[in-house]
């Protein structure tokens, strides 16, 4: 999960939970479960080149 969150934060600022997680703050079970679900979504989005290209060059898709 760390690698996915770090890669996501290279492109985006993430969300409050991911920011807290990367700062080393303690998260509860429910917060970790939520972050885990979000990280899985981010992993899938990072895998798809067409989705990634929207960030890199929005005019490319347009």
TrEMBL record:
This is Uncharacterized protein. It comes from hydrothermal vent metagenome.
